[in-house]
User: Fold this.
Amino acid sequence: MNQHSTSGMKRTAKDVINKAKNLQRLDPLQKDEVNRKAYEKFQKEHGAVAPTIDNAVPSERFEGSAASWTTEEQKLLEQALKTYPVSTAERWEKIAAAVPGRNKKDCMKRYKELVEMVKAKKAAQEHAKSKK
Assistant:
């Protein structure tokens, strides 16, 4: 838990759980603000990754789409999906703006692909359970 801290501040599991519970009690506008700030911090730390770095090669896990997504693009998409909940106005425009080089249509298509992959995985797990 403390290995990812950049502030050097040590936190216990109890501290983290209490913070999470407090955040859950926030009203939606406060949650949006907290998510936005967390996303901006994430983008500042991860957004400046040069495309020549090893993690910019297409992810094997997500191969198959016409224009393969890099691992970094995938991370940015996932973080943007968390940052901008379904209730967010102009959600897909904001998500696309958070993923450099991708437009709204690309992000929506990728999201649908991911949803289908998750559904297929769950169906396979249920099928495996029913065979036991």
